[in-house]
Design a protein that fits this description.
Blueprint lengths: L2 H12 L19 H18 L2 H13 L7 H16 L3 E14 L3 E7 L3 E3 L1 E3 L11 E8 L2 H6 L8 E4 L14 H4 L1 H12 L4 E5 L25 E4 L1 H12 L5 E6 L2 E15 L4 E11 L9 H20 L6 E8 L7 H9 L7 E6 L7 E7 L3 H15 L10 E4 L15 E7 L4 H4 L12 H20 L20
Parallel strand pairs: 5-6, 6-7, 7-8, 11-12, 11-13, 13-16, 14-15
Antiparallel strand pairs: 1-10, 2-3, 2-9, 4-8, 5-9, 10-12, 14-16
Helix pairs in contact: 1-2, 2-13, 3-9, 9-13
């Protein structure tokens, strides 16, 4: 048994006397600091979350019994039904579907082959939202460019060709993180740029720094006034092969076949459930992830794990009978991957109550060791105060969970539509050195998830959500000054 689990077992046994408190919330101790008010709750929540891997069992069911969950697919709707039934079994309140109309893109059959200078199949994944090719496919010479500037320079040679954006993602940097933002733009806007120059199709190098010839898909976008051309991601290895051949002056000819099509919008839903607050239930702390995934792999890290963290967080709190002052609402957003309809619809449907949303937490960075939270808010002064408060809250968690910290940064795609309403947005951060090895690929499967890391993240999300929902002041606001004692009692 690892020392990690021994430590948590010790915490668990030491806190058994308070494991199932009789009251709905621990009595407020004389010490009014966050540490004084919530250190015991931290010990209880961590012990409960680490006692067994119920979270992993549920993620395994989602990944293996249901599988990948693209918007418009029957498997996405089965996943939503399962999540709602699971939260009902857990005893959560106001469990419901909130209707969302989502895009319905279907991949169909797809393939690509290098025909010249030799015959070799290429490994591809069509980009989400791409149009298809004619039945015989598109056969053309490939023009390789690294970026927009090289595309402009090659403009005279692009018409009637297939263009490959070969822009390598830099290796993970412990200080700067991944280089995802530097390279993903070619996936989203590459086809439009190529179509503007008269290109027939667009290939993009998969957005990853490491590969075992695994392609990475993702959404692309078209412009209404520019022809739509087929677009697909190819592996880093195949991109390098084509680029090196063309650099040597060897023409490369590729045949691309894609049956992709976009059908009419389909009905889906955000899955919602609540742990109702004991004193101010109208005030809400939202936690969640997105229930949809791409149509390859299991969607384990992206974002099945984030959904399970939220489901289990309020499950742990309810088992402990830790009912906070405010309501904790789980929202499993639909259609994050290729439309963000779930997040946008939630913000629209709940516009009248967003003023009562104390905070919104999204987990959409995979299931690795927890690292803390990135905070975003329309009011930067509130954000800065919230970062100070969050660092104090995170310091209450045992060292075996950490190190954890709060810092400025993005909250998350699904919760971003709530920013203009003044909601404090929080992105649940994890160690990210290997996330983009699996992101949007057939390799995003349950075997890549560490059960202990999942349980640690459940503990962090449960504790942070509990404190945010229970502390007297709203996060990002100063605590009220102590009341002056009555003169008669002085």
């Amino acid at each position: 048994m690892s020392s990690l689990f021994v430590n948590f077992a010790f915490i668990f046994l030491a806190s058994l006397s308070g494991f199932y408190p009789e009251t709905e919330s621990p009595k407020k101790p004389a010490d009014s600091t966050l540490a004084g008010r919530y250190r015991t709750a931290a010990e209880q929540i961590v012990a409960a979350a680490m006692a067994k891997n119920e979270a992993y069992d549920r993620l395994e069911h989602l990944c293996l019994a249901i599988g990948h969950r693209l918007s418009g697919s029957p498997s996405l709707e089965r996943a939503i039904d399962w999540a709602l039934e699971t939260m009902k079994i857990d005893g959560q309140e106001d469990v419901r579907r909130e209707k969302v109309m989502v895009p319905h893109w279907v991949r169909g059959k797809e393939s690509a082959s290098m025909l010249k200078p030799r015959l070799e199949p290429l490994v591809i994944l069509g980009l989400g939202g791409s149009v298809g090719t004619p039945p015989e496919g598109i056969t053309a010479e490939v023009v390789v460019v690294a970026n927009e500037e090289e595309l402009d320079a090659a403009a005279e040679n692009v018409k009637g060709k297939i263009v490959l954006f070969n822009n390598p993602m830099p290796p993970y940097d412990p200080e700067k993180g991944s280089g995802y933002g530097e390279t993903v733009r070619f996936r989203s806007k590459g086809p439009k740029l190529v179509a503007e120059k008269g290109g027939m199709a667009c290939l993009v190098r998969s957005v990853t720094a490491k590969s075992l010839r695994t392609p990475h898909t993702g959404a692309t976008r078209y412009a209404d006034d520019i022809p739509q051309i087929p677009a697909a991601a190819i592996t880093t290895e195949d991109a390098e092969t084509i680029a090196r051949l063309t650099k040597r002056g060897v023409p490369v000819v590729v045949n691309l076949k894609m049956d992709a099509q976009t059908l009419p919008d389909a009905e889906s839903a955000n899955a919602v459930a609540e742990l109702r607050g004991r004193e101010e239930p109208e005030e809400i702390v939202v936690i969640g992830g997105h229930i949809d995934s791409w149509d390859v792999g299991h969607g384990a890290h992206d974002d099945g794990g984030g959904c399970i963290m939220a489901i289990e967080a309020i499950h742990v709190l309810r088992k402990l009978n830790l009912i906070p002052r405010r309501t904790i609402r789980v929202v499993l957003w639909t259609n994050e991957e290729n439309g963000l309809r779930g997040g946008r619809t939630y913000a629209q449907d709940h516009a009248d109550e967003l003023m009562n949303h104390v905070a919104a937490i999204e987990s959409d960075s995979g299931v690795f060791a927890p690292r803390g939270f990135s905070l975003d808010c329309a009011d930067e002064s509130r954000r800065d105060l919230a970062i100070e408060q969050m660092n104090e809250i995170l310091s209450l968690l045992p060292s075996a969970i950490g190190p954890l910290n709060a810092e400025p940064g993005g909250g998350g795609a699904d919760i971003s539509p709530m920013k203009d309403a003044g909601v404090m947005l929080m992105g649940h951060r994890v160690e990210g050195s290997t996330y983009f090895d699996y992101h949007h690929t057939p390799a995003d499967t349950i075997d890549k998830v560490d059960p202990a890391a999942l349980s640690q993240n459940v503990a962090v999300m449960a504790f942070v959500a509990y404190v945010l929902a229970d502390m007297e002041e709203r996060i990002g606001e100063k605590a009220p000054a102590p009341a002056e004692p009555d003169r008669a009692t002085r």
